[in-house]
Amino acid sequence: MSPEARRQQFIDLGLAKLRYVALEQVSIEDIAAEAGVSAGLLFHYFDSKLDFQVALVEEQARIVGDVALPTREPRDLSEVMPILIETLGGYVDHIVENRQSVLPMLAGVSWSEPRIRAAVKDVREQIVSHFVEYAGNVGIDRSGRFVLAVHGWIAVVEETMVHWLDENSEFASMTRDEIVEHLATMFMALAAAVGVHLDAPDVSGAVL
User: Residue 181 has what pLDDT?
Assistant: First the structure.
């Protein structure tokens, strides 16, 4: 196994653990055992347990960033909402399946490690950048107000997912499709606030 493949193997095993335990509870010994190597070998690829944790969060953030990007680029304004709904469907499904590892990131857990905070912030910036780029390609004015609105919407999406997946919240009874429609409708409202008018989302007719 090449060094790159071995390092990725450790990260993949760590991400699998994060589906059930918190970041701080991921055991180096367990990861090494599952890889069939000694714990000492892992530290040939990561300087410390913290370095390994940073790598896990960076990889998880990268995956969330990929999932959050539009599945295809709209050709005109009429395609914006259908594509957004498709993208939100995949995003919501990924968060649900990986809630243990992703929710702390969305909830803004105060990590003391600057690299973790930077990784999460960079992914959010990339998501905003792609949304703004696609908007410009279909004739939407990429004004400062519009960019700010997209930033605000991303924050609303994350906060909505955190509250919806809280089993004790009053929103827990909402279905997956209701959440997708809710998030899409909020994007439409934010866009309208800066002069961009989009058609109402139709979740029933979307391929999710």
Answer: 92
Residue with tokens 């998501």: 127
What's the pLDDT score for residue 206?
A: 46
- Locus of tokens 């993949």: 12
Give the residue among 204, 158, 160 at the shortest CA–CA distance from 61. 158
Query: Which pTM value belongs to this model?
Result: 0.81
Do the beta carbons of residue 59 and residue 120 sit within 8 Å? no
Structure-token pair, residue 193:
């606030």
If residue 97 lies in a helix (H) or strand (E), which one and from where to where? Answer: helix 80-97
Q: Extract the tokens encoding 69.
A: 């990007």
Report the amino acid identity of residue 77.
L
Do residues 120 and 103 make contact, with C-beta atoms less than 8 angstroms apart?
A: no
C-alpha span between 164 and 160 (Å, rounded): 6
* Contact assessment for residue 56 and residue 45, using Cβ atoms and an 8 Å cutoff: no
The single-letter code of the amino acid at 14 is: G
Q: Which domains does the chain have, with CATH numbers?
A: 3-46 (1.10.10), 57-198 (1.10.357.10)
Mean pLDDT by 10 residues, the chain (208 residues): 91 90 87 92 91 89 86 83 90 89 72 77 86 84 88 90 86 91 89 77 50
Quick one: tokens of 144? 């400062």
